[in-house]
Amino acid sequence: MRASDAERERIAEILREAVAEGRLDMEEFEERLGAAYAARTHGQLEPLVRDLPVPGAAAPAPLSADAGGVAVGGGWAERIGGSPTSKWAVAIMGGFQRKGAWTVPRTFTAFSLMGGGEIDLREARFEDREVVIRCFALMGGVQITVPPDLETHVGGIGLMGGFDHTGSADGDPTGPRVTVTGLAVFGGVSVERKLRKEEHRRLKAERRRLKAERRELLRAERRELRDARHGERRERREHRGESRLSLEKDGRDD
Question: Are 191 and 180 in contact (CB under 8 A)?
Fold first, then answer.
């Protein structure tokens, strides 16, 4: 089965806990972390945590997301339901934005004429589990951003324009199902999967911390190597001194 971004991040979090507990050294942690982010299937993720005390490691449990698309338990149930914030958006030689804590209706229509629009679902609520976003871009564009574990299906048409279907992916079965459709004429509609900004900052800080720890380990190794070399030189000097004393003693004896 294909692995999702949320499942890869779940494995990465397990590895971070393991290195913090001393179960993995830094070299093995970095090797497994790189393999986790490069993995495309559950079969590639499974061996990375097989020897760690993780419940259900053989098959990562379904993940749900909090307001930013970060894997947590029970997040989607709290984000489904409520009155929609708006049901349509128009950009004519201008732009529109729908982002932050807004409520997505069952059907949302976006129209862009020589303009651009941004629809961000990472922190949104949803009126229903089944959501349809209809995008019509005429010499304009619409950018849709979704969290990694949101089930998304793209089925629009590009006519002398572009309708990006690469954003289609399965997601958490407990969450909403978003269908993106419509038409792009001399324009474009794109769907991109991203973590929320807070999660990006956390991962960036984690990478900085790991780099700092690795630098400190390298410094410690260099110090140990330097001390070992100093010790070897000191032993050689002492050995030469003992040899001279022995030669002087032999000369006196003669």
Answer: yes
Angstrom distance (rounded) from CA 50 to CA 53: 8
- Residue 227 confidence (pLDDT) above 90: no
The token pair that represents 185 in the structure block: 């004429």
- What is the spatial distance between Cα 13 and Cα 32, in angstroms, rounded to a whole number? 11
| Residues in a beta bridge with 50 | none
Give the pLDDT confidence of 13-57 residue by residue, as tens digits.
888 787 767 777 777 887 888 888 888 887 788 888 888 864 343
Rounded to the nearest angstrom, the gap between the alpha carbon of residue 153 and the centroid of all alpha carbons in its chain is: 21
Could you read off the pLDDT of 165-207 as tens digits, one per residue? 887 888 888 889 999 999 999 999 999 888 766 666 667 777 7
Give me the DSSP letters along 94-147: SEEEE-SS-EE-SEEEEEEESSEEEEE-TT-EESSSEEEEEEEEESSEEEEEE-
Burial letters 14-34, b for 16+ CB under 10 A, else e: bbbebbeeeebeeeebeebbe
